[in-house]
Amino acid sequence: MSIEVHPSSVVDLKAQLGDGVVIGPFCTVGPNVTLGARTKLISHVVVAGVTTLGEDNAVYPFAMLGGPPQHTAYKGEDTQLVIGDRNVVREHATMNTGTVGGGGITRVGSDGLYMIESHVGHDCVVGDQVILTKQATLGGHCEIADFVIVGGLAAVHQRTRVGRHAMIGGLAAVVKDVIPYGSVWGNHAHLEGLNLLGLKRRGFSRETINTMRAAYRMLFADEGTFQERLDDTVETYSDTPEVMEIIDFIRADASRPLCLPEREV
What we know:
Elements: E1 4-5, E2 10-11, E3 16-17, E4 22-23, E5 28-29, E6 33-35, E7 40-41, E8 46-47, E9 50-53, E10 58-59, E11 64-67, E12 80-83, E13 88-89, E14 94-96, E15 105-108, E16 113-114, E17 119-120, E18 125-126, E19 131-132, E20 137-138, E21 143-144, E22 149-150, E23 155-156, E24 161-162, E25 167-168, E26 173-174, E27 182-185, E28 190-194, H1 196-201, H2 206-219, H3 226-237, H4 241-251
Parallel strand pairs: 1-4, 2-5, 3-6, 4-7, 5-8, 6-9, 7-10, 8-11, 9-12, 10-13, 11-14, 12-15, 13-16, 14-17, 15-18, 16-19, 17-20, 18-21, 19-22, 20-23, 21-24, 22-25, 23-26, 25-27
Antiparallel strand pairs: 27-28
């Protein structure tokens, strides 16, 4: 399998191109770029900085990958952007390299969909099968776990965590951590419940979903203190891995602000 580079594109001779890479018209690929096998730049794509894309990625026109971090402390250091396999990066999407103070690497997993004008900021850690819809934005240092969906025009504030299988509604402003399996919406975002649609789509059983809903109601009820409800939930649902994933997420850093329900559950 050969490498295809359109004559109108500018590809530095030092760039590392895997077998079957296709670079369409008017692309620019820098000297410190690695493109994995069968990755395709459709056209008008810029890949700069110290940037690595894995295999079978598709990058659409006017996307910019590996641009410098939008951070005043950045002084031109060789920080990195590392992207996994089989991602689809649509038009005008941007992903920045890291900063020295944030560890130096922005990491994006595999099998994701990054829609038009979405943005992954510096030092983010993004998991697998993540979807950022149109103009969704991740501030610097965000931690976005597997299977998260961020709705259109939503923004996740810097240094915010979003747990696995969570759903961020369109236009939400997320300034607090979102529990695994949670669904949040609003400005500022509040917890609306569990991401039931996502759980059903991903094959969670009815029994598991019902158990998670009961645990959610216990954890976010009005009675008692939050610590008391947390302890009660652990005692009652310690044998349910999905519930304990939520508990472990909360306990990982109890000092962090958490998205909570706006009304009774």
